[in-house]
Design a protein that fits this description.
Elements: H1 16-25, H2 29-58, H3 69-104, H4 112-134, H5 160-188, H6 201-233, H7 246-257, H8 259-263, H9 266-280, H10 287-301, H11 316-344, H12 353-376, H13 378-384, H14 388-418, H15 424-450, H16 467-498, E1 527-528, H17 538-544, E2 550-551, H18 565-582, H19 592-612, H20 631-659, H21 672-698, H22 701-732, H23 739-770, H24 782-805
Antiparallel strand pairs: 1-2
Helix pairs in contact: 2-3, 2-4, 2-16, 3-5, 3-6, 3-14, 4-5, 4-18, 5-6, 5-18, 5-20, 6-7, 6-9, 6-10, 6-20, 9-11, 9-14, 10-11, 11-12, 12-14, 12-15, 14-15, 15-16, 18-19, 19-23, 20-23, 20-24, 21-22, 21-24, 22-23, 23-24
The structure holds heme-as (2 copies) and copper (II) ion.
Domain Heme-copper oxidase subunit III family profile: 553-806
Keywords: Cell membrane, Copper, Electron transport, Heme, Iron, Membrane, Metal-binding, Respiratory chain, Translocase, Transmembrane, Transmembrane helix, Transport
GO molecular function: cytochrome-c oxidase activity; heme binding; metal ion binding
Amino acid sequence: MAVNIPSSAPSRKPGFWEVLWDYMTTGDHKKIGIMYMLTSVLGFAIAGLLAVAIRVQLAVPNNEFLVGQQYNEVLTMHGAIMLFYFIIPFGLVGFGNYLLPLQLGERDVALPRVNTFAFYLFLFSLILVAVSFFIGGPAAAGWTFYYPLTMKNSVAGSHGVEVLMVSILLNGLASLLGSANFAATVMNLRAKGMGVFKMPMFVWGILATSILQLIALSGLTAAALTTLLELKLGLSLFNPANGGVPVLFQQFFWFYSHPAVYVMLLPYLGIAAEIVSTFSRKPLFGYKVMVYSILGIVLVGLLVWVHHMFAVGLPQGWQLFFAIATVIVGVPTGVKLFNLIGTMWGGHLQMKSPLYWVIAFIFNFTIGGITGVALGLIPFDYAVTDGYFVVAHFHNVLMFGTSYLVMAGLYYWWPKITGRLMSEKMGLWHLWLFLIGSWMTFMPQYILGFLGMPRRYYTYPEGNYLWNELNYISTIGAFILLIGGLVWVYNMVWSLRNGEKANDNPWGGYTLEWLTSSPPAPHNFEVVLPTHFASERPLYDWKKAGVKFEPVNMKDVHLPQPTIWPFVSALGLLLFGLGISYSWFNVPLSDPWAVLLWVGFGITLYGIFKWAGTPEFAEPAHHHVLTSVPNGAMGMWWFFISEVTLFGVLISGYVYLRMVGKAPPPEERPDIWLAALNTLILVSSSFVIHKAEQDFAKGIFSKFRLGLMLTMILGGIFFLFQTYEFVKFGLEVDYTQNVWAACFFTLVGLHGLHIIIGGVGVALPYYQALTGKLNHKEHGSLTPASMYWHLVDVVWLVIITIFYIW
Ligand code: HAS
Ligand code: HAS
Ligand code: CU
């Protein structure tokens, strides 16, 4: 189907350093997708080996292979790495990056360089965690890092919790940037003629998941931020000794971490839909119903988080509401599964490894989903919570649920990505080892749960009915999984050298990625796409219509030029992250970690300015977008959601503490007159930057630059006043003993951080203007910077109301 144009393949094989440099500087979504997938495979391997260690310890009673703190560390890292570095990124940003532009018929994502930055931030956050294994030991408080477990570092000198918090914050930022980027891509960059209901189901999965991340991730950010601040500064919203409420931590945490399970599911259901349609040689059964089910899952999924907290003693009304919502969420999920089955029903099934994995998924996941619904029933949950029934449930939906769709997707798109097929035979071995292994490992755990075995204990005594036998079987299962994992890795490595060469469309897929060569050229499409999309299966429709493809004119192809600065900016944040984990801002520079902190900060700042000074495209070109909003602003609009919900979650926590009488304001509050003056300054800066934008549009550059300068000065004055007030109020109250003050410093401090970020944001277009990078065609980062500045101002109006007036 693809036209044979000799792609500009280099005649000689590039050396290792060339490839490395290429990947460090690339903006190509395919390379970034590959790097995300490789990192996730690594995450699975590390966390999987840790799981085997857990199972070895639990194989027999009173074992001493991993004891106490050590066990807790391994358990925490197993859970956290599996979730944050394997299952969440693989689908959303791994497959998502590789496939979104291809399936949309585009050349890249909306913001390629933000994409590079986000990937390296993600990778570095994993490196940060890895460092903690070797220096001081990793966190040991469970992946849920509940308060107050995080407050006791039982090993002296361990900074594991701080490291985990910082890495969650960095990883979270990366994830938000990735999500905003995807949402902007879907809005602005689709092939001409592709309406939203003509998008492949995988694209819907990525779009919905991105929106879910943008709304919900704030809960995790709030949980990690408050934990870090308590460890570093003693600011506590949770410490009951000062009136704090420990359960509030769980509200923050689960507000994200329940919706997160759909982040772990929705991209993969999209993958299943693509595979099932291709291998049944049929369109999807009930395309629109599937889209609405996805949106239904997003909506209801945001309203069920309390089912993780049934046992903490919340009011009955709360529990009932959340129990009902929990049962309801099974309905759209079930609909999706029925649609997959409906698609296969009566199709000419081509039994290849991707389809096998999907069928195995449907079978397993239905069981795991139903045990989830069972857990949503309050009395049942009371009986089995914190026991192995729960462990079995979530491995049932994760390990032999969505992980199977990781495999399905990999077997499906591997030939597209690498140009070679994997071995079908080894694929089936892999499947059967994983099936038998997972059933042996986790099915006995359901029974152990009923028999009362609690989770998160490093050992168990002799003599409990069937405990020994079931645990032993479970451990054997884990070893079978290990063998399965090795077969999988071997299959991939083998295929790269010996696999059969794949043609452009080895499975007869219907979506646009199969129109490219295998692997695709840097510019993806070598033909001009027709502009008529009759359904979500363009290749099928075009073939039927006998469409002939025209080769693309390379003059029309504009790809972002490579640049090292996003990498450097992220690297600075790694050093900065190490610095704040192992040290703090007030530590003297004789401590090398403190040096790292400031050096990292400096590198990031430098990197960002250099980045802003490097144009995205070698020569200015007109880029067609579908809406009237340019890509930068579109990305910023989506990113706003996450900022609003972050302040929303923290403010809700504060309002709750006030309402239940736990956080009465102290008699001496910070001065209202100073805050009023400050508000005036900040609001006027919003008008000034707005005027500057108008001047820019009119082409009066000198006034425009003056306007930006004035905005920064006003922001600086605001910041100075705020610092003065902070220090003054900090001397007046003991903020470690007062919940109101803790809320004040947390929220106003977070706003102050936003002033710094916003100020740097405004400095960027100023720098671009000074260096001649801005003109009528190139708006640089002006619009997003000014949008962000307005947002920071609006948030301030809310803050002054709730802290100074209320
Ligand atoms: Fe879950 C705990 C409830 C889906 C992951 N879950 C966890 C944890 C993780 C996790 C990681 O209500 C533990 C975290 C920790 O470390 O503490 N889960 C559900 C429900 C669903 C569900 C209702 N979970 C997932 C998915 C995950 C995931 C997907 C990751 C990918 N889960 C819970 C609850 C807990 C929990 C409690 C807390 C337990 C505790 O005490 O700590 C649903 O989304 C599942 C929907 C899917 C189906 C299957 C297909 C549907 C069909 C339709 C007909 C079926 C119906 C049900 C109408 C339901 C075929 C009939 C009901 C009967 C009982 C027969
Ligand atoms: Fe798990 C607890 C056992 C897979 C997620 N698991 C958790 C928790 C979470 C979680 C969130 O039996 C809760 C943590 C907490 O309480 O805070 N899990 C297993 C086993 C596997 C497993 C045997 N878990 C997963 C997956 C998850 C996940 C997948 C999410 C996506 N897990 C447990 C147990 C507990 C548990 C106990 C409860 C303990 C307690 O005390 O409560 C297996 O399915 C893992 C299979 C994978 C492998 C690795 C395959 C090997 C490969 C190649 C290796 C490469 C080599 C070369 C050798 C066996 C892929 C090296 C080269 C390099 C470059 C590294
Ligand atoms: Cu949940």
